[in-house]
Amino acid sequence: MALVEVSQDNLSVIPARQIVLVEATFSDGSSARGTGVLVGTNDILTAGHVVYNQTKGWMKSLALWFAPNFNPTTSQLKTVGESVPWSHWTATAWPNQIYASAPSHKSTPQETQFDTALIGIDYPVGTKLGFLNLNEGFNQVGIPFEATAYGYSSGFSALTHAETTATKFGPSASMYTIREQLFGGASGGPLLTTENEVIGVVSASSPESGTQFSDLSMVWDELIEVYHQNDALLPTWSRPSWNLTITGYEKDYLPTRAMEGQTLLITASDEHHVADRVSVNIEGISETNITDAVSFDAKLLEGSMIFGDEFVTALLLTENDGYQETRTVRINATFFDDDSGYQESISATFDVFDDSLTSGSASSQKFRDSTLEYETSILIEAAFGRSHIDQYLTSGLELRQKQGSLESTIGVIVSSGLIESRVGQSNEQWVSQVYSNIAPPLQNLANPNVFVDQLDNGVVSRLELLTLATHALMSWDGAVGLQ
């Protein structure tokens, strides 16, 4: 599709409303215009070469117009767009990458892929106008997808856009291409998905190759870190925007239960990439009962965050520490933002079980594995508790033989509502019942709230969870040598 001019009326409609005219002035007094896009409360995404010139360096002053009716051919502002009273700005780009080898007037694919910049200002314009979301992008090299490109292209009398098909270029470099050519002034204009998510910005173009866009995934970690650091420019800012978690390594949760002798991988994360470092303190267990598997001091674990993302450590629980009962261990993680001097702490707990409790399920102590009695009692143990095995075994065996399979029997138990009649109708009550029945625990058991949320959101059903719990008990028996 050819480039189409956006009418003045449509400048107030998403996503044209989020397009920004950017004018950068350099130390020698020269200036250059480009295009940007609102991607946050006070964040404007554009191309790196708009804010940094290979010979002139960083821009010294900046002018921004939000959704103006601008003629890029005559440089005439027909309407200046939304008036925003900002005064202070910062800009971040990757000049070493975008000017790695080629002269400033020509960009290679290896340079184009990094040609991204983020401008932060001291006014929450995105709250007023709205903003578009960032996306790391589509990584299927060579597979075309629908997209839209925007920019103030010279040769036209208004903002232009092209509804087109984009393709990701690779593998020697990672960038997006479209067959349409956007012209001077469009640099920094966004490439949008059908959901109006920004995945790249205009970097270069030619009649032969169309237009090339940077790939946000190439600078994603640093970009998100700066994105949240820009919050400090706002007058209402009081502290960093944290999103902190303590989880198991490559898991969305911290296991709530662990056994002696188990190695527990702990990840302290800041999704907003603000934190520079972290310290982790362990409570509820002595140094002699826990060994750090990666040679950190067991009392205080410290480390740097990778772009504020995560810190991982491994804890090896002593096999025979003299405890004969369950104890609760608390992990306290304190995150530090060295740029602002702020810190914030969170904590999480998990229970450590004595290894003497790993003798298997109650069903395994009553019946030989692979028998109908064992299968039936395992189901009763998971659904109603080990103390009800003898009470329900006879009727359970009759049901199991009638249904012909364990899975079918589980389905009847769930549909009958017997569990609900004992504990209540809510998902929280149901999960609490089944969860408590599979203790002593399976290793790396997720927090019960994970299962409650899955039920609430329709991700899984009660049938699926009871089936999972029943087979997990069987697998646990096998793991401790009972099958």
In short:
This protein has 13 helices and 26 strands.
Structural overview:
- The protein has 483 residues and is an alpha+beta fold.
- Helix 7 packs across helix 8, helix 7 (372-384) packs across helix 11 (427-437) and helix 7 packs across helix 13.
- The strands form 6 sheets. Strands 12-13-14-17-16-15 form a 6-stranded antiparallel β-barrel. The protein has a 6-stranded antiparallel sheet with strand order 7-2-3-4-11-10.
- It has helices spanning 48-51, 95-98, 109-112, 125-129, 220-229, 362-366, 372-384, 389-403, 406-416, 418-423, 427-437, 448-456, 462-479, and strands spanning 4-5, 19-25, 31-38, 43-46, 52-53, 57-58, 61-66, 69-71, 76-79, 89-93, 117-121, 145-151, 160-169, 175-178, 190-192, 198-206, 210-213, 244-248, 257-259, 263-270, 277-283, 290-292, 300-304, 310-317, 327-337, 342-353.
- It folds into 3 domains: 4-232, Thrombin, subunit H (Beta Barrel); 244-357, Immunoglobulin-like; 362-479.
- Strand 5 (52-53) and strand 6 (57-58) form a beta hairpin.
